[in-house]
Structures are given as structure tokens and as C-alpha cells.
Amino acid sequence: MTPLKVGLIIVAITYFLFTLHQTFMFQWIGEWEYIGANNPQTATWVFITDVQAYVFLLFRFAAGILAVSGVTLYFVKKGLPQATTYKLLRGVIVLEGIYWLGLLTSGIWGMLPTARGFNVVFMLSTGIPCLVGSIGIPIAMFMLAYKLSPHKPAKPAIKWALIAGIFYVLTLWLNNTGMWITTVMGKGTEWLLTSPESMVSFASAVFGLLALTIYTAYFAKKSTAASEWAQLNLRAVGSIVTALGLFFLWNYLTWILFGGWNEWYAWILGHNLDLWMLSLPLVGLPLLFSNTNSHSQNYADPQQ
Fold first, then answer.
1. Cα–Cα distance between 184 and 121 in angstroms, integer?
2. Which of 34, 54, 56, 141 is the most buried (most CB within 10 A)?
3. Measured between alpha carbons, how far is 268 from 257 in angstroms, rounded to an integer?
4. Neighbouring C-beta atoms of residue 189, cutoff 10 Å
5. Which backbone phi and psi does 108 adopt, to 5 degrees?
6. pLDDT tens for residues 7-36?
């Protein structure tokens, strides 16, 4: 079995296990009572967004079940028919897209003014990221699922896969940058400047994910001429996937190695439902070191 296949299997299992864990964590129940103890309006919004987020999380849980089922079938049958593989992929893609729809209400809440005016920090950390993610990602994922078929031209599916990738990275940059703004406002810039590991995490979120977003968009633009999946530059794809995974892996390891707790760790480790992405380098690295023929580079090599 190739390293890429092993990586895909581990990522699928990680995706499922992490979502399984989150699905059966119920500490969020009743948090609206103390978060909005002095503000009934806030309590109502927390109640609505919490319940809705959990309902839509069940769709990602179902996607995880499909992903693991596909892995299991692959092992048991020592391979899968092309039609079955495409059906499983479309199912996972649609369910994942539905999951992201669940953040729309949080996005709307984050953009609404309060009695004191707009809460800029809440808008940056929740409103804008949730709106972008809950609109851009589902549309791209649904279109990708619709276009993805062994009996249809690959070019439209490639287009929507690239668009989905852009929205994923963009949403993660917006969300994590917003959370770092919240953290720094609470802890102060002096704390940030005297904490090297936090500085690296801050820079990787604010500047690193921004650079990755720009690079992903650039790669997508350079890949628009590709009419077959084989024409994509796998090394470029691998670099994007690896970098994204290393961002989450680094932040997880810094907590293990250096300890401490703050708003940032509360977000990235406690409330972040995309932490499963720390396993992505297991897929990205095999792609990064894959052989890319010159024909595919004509379509997708960022250096050209």
C-alpha cells in the first residue's frame, strides 16, 4: 500500500473519530444560562446557535461514518469499484457542505449591532468567518458533488474543487485571525511579545494562513485550464494540504510542550471542530514528494 493511501485512510479515520468525540460532548448544553445570565438577548442567540450547530454537526458525523465505511470496504474487498468510490465521495462532500450551513446563524448574529453599536471583535472572530464559511463552502461543495461523476467531464468538478479549497483556507484564516485578535485584546501585546511560542502561533495564523490563502487562490487560477485530475500539479496540492495540517499540528503541540491556557487555546483546542486537519500532512507529504510530469506542470505549476 502506498504512503498516499495510508495517509488517506488515517485522515478518514481521524475525521471520523474527532467528529465522534465532538458529537458526544454535551458540555455546551445549558451554557446559554450563564453566558447570557445578564442579557436575555444574548442567551437566546447562544441557545439558537448552539442547538443549530449541534444539529448540523450530526451531518459531519454522518460524513465521517461514510468515510470510515469506505475505508473498511476498501480493506475488506481489497479495492472499490469506481462507481462506488464516486458515490461515497459525493456523499461525504454533500454532508460536509450541509455541516457548514449550520454556521450561517452564527454569522448573522456576529454581524448584528448591539445597543452599543457594532462589536467589531465579535464581527471579526465570528460574524465574517461564519458568513464566508457557511455560504462559500456549501455552494462549492454542493456544486462539486453535482459535477463529480465518472460519466461527466472532470473539468467542472476540478473547478469547484479548487473553489472549495479557496473558501476552506480563507474561512480558516478569517476565523483564526479573529480569535487571535480576541486573545491579544484580552492578554495584551506585551504578553504576546514575551511568549515565543505564542508569537509563532500568532504569525502562523495571521500571516501564514493569509499567505496560504493567496497561494491557494493563485494555484486555483493557474489550474483552471486542467481538464483532467491528472493534469493538476500534485506537488502544489501537497504543499497546500501539508501547510494547512502543520498549522493545526503546531498549535496542538505547543499546548502539549509549553502548557498554559488562554482564549486562543480555548478556541483552537476546545471549540475548533476542524482540529482533525492536523492529520493532513499524512496526505500532503506523499503528494508533495510525488512525481509530477511536465504536461501537468503546464496547467498548474505556480512557478510558470
1. 11
2. 141
3. 15
4. 9
5. -65, -45
6. 999 999 999 999 999 999 887 787 777 676
